[in-house]
Fold:
Amino acid sequence: MRTLILAIGNPARGDDALAPLLVERLAAKPLPPGTERLAVIQLQPEMAFDLIGYGRVVLVDAGIGTPPPFAFEPLFPRRDDSWTSHRLSPWALLQICHEVLKTPPPPAFLLTISGERFDLGAPLSEKGHHHLERAFLFLRRWLHRFR
Structure:
């Protein structure tokens, strides 16, 4: 099954780098065949095209107020205020597949890694390092479970 791991985050903003760092860690380890990785600073409407053809998608992001070390939940299409904005939500991205592309989006999941420091130029927080490691181990096990 083709799987896309889509990491969202800005490496220059402290813990916002958690998702891109997770993708880097995954690149260094063997993954199930058909697993692809993509890191972006933010979601854009045209990225709905990138989801087509995958059997499942995992969007990874950092979150403030996320229960530590991370949250993992299914994603469903939903229109929200980000529908026409510069910063698109994961739910709205799936909604674009459904409404604009007239294609059901693949099954999707959101892995939100708990972060605490998002200032421009800030380093990754100590807690961020710990949460990243836990999320990495979880996602590797999850991916291998569904080969």
